[in-house]
Design brief:
It is a single chain. The chain is an all-alpha fold. The protein folds into two domains: 99 residues, Alpha Horseshoe (Serine Threonine Protein Phosphatase 5, Tetratricopeptide repeat); 54 residues, no CATH class. It is built from eight helices and no strands. Helix 4 runs antiparallel to helix 5 and helix 6 packs antiparallel against helix 7. The longest helix is centred in the C-terminal third of the chain and has 21 residues. It starts with 21 loop residues before the first helix and ends with a helix.
């Protein structure tokens, strides 16, 4: 091995994922790296996640969304963070992780995410918490979520599912 050039690679995408001092390093990164660069990188990760999601590759999409979320936490980019949280919520649903999907949807809602109520309703419906899901669908309608067809189908699912379950037992 002597005489050969050795190169070291440096992972700049998520340097805070190593070590025990995660919060301190993440806070320092937010201080040092301009918010515009963090947002730009997070949007690239979101786009890559969307491509994986569209291809039915939910685990890689979830990882990319998670990385983007970590990058934006504390950066003051609440609208972008809420959007990516909603995307990750759907990825969790596709992977059968309803509780995690619900947690992301609720967090997005707290940040003012436009589709957060809709994502919350989807998660609640998948958990068979139909009454709460219906309330979330109503909140989504009040907040003018644009995907009316999906909203209608899912709200019908919440209305009909309890009666179907009773008939089957």
């Amino acid at each position: 091995m002597r005489g050969r050039n050795r190169t070291r690679t440096l992972n700049l995408t998520a340097p805070w994922q190593e070590g025990d001092h995660t919060r301190n390093v993440r806070a320092r990164i937010v201080e040092v790296i301009p918010r515009s660069i963090l947002k730009e990188r997070a949007l690239v990760l979101k786009t890559e996640g969307n491509q994986h999601f569209s291809a039915g590759e939910y685990s890689p999409a979830l990882s990319l969304y998670s990385e983007a979320i970590e990058m934006l936490e504390g950066a003051g980019e609440d609208a972008t963070l809420a959007t990516i949280l909603c995307n990750r919520s759907v990825a969790y649903l596709k992977l059968g992780q309803s509780a995690s999907a619900l947690a992301d949807a609720e967090r997005a809602g707290a940040l003012g995410g436009g589709k957060a109520h809709f994502r919350r309703a989807e998660a609640l419906s998948s958990m068979r918490r139909y009454k709460q899901a219906l309330e979330a669908f109503e909140a989504a309608l009040d907040n003018a979520v644009s995907d009316c067809a999906a909203l209608t189908l899912l709200s019908l699912n919440c209305l009909l599912a309890p009666s179907v379950e009773r008939a089957g037992t």
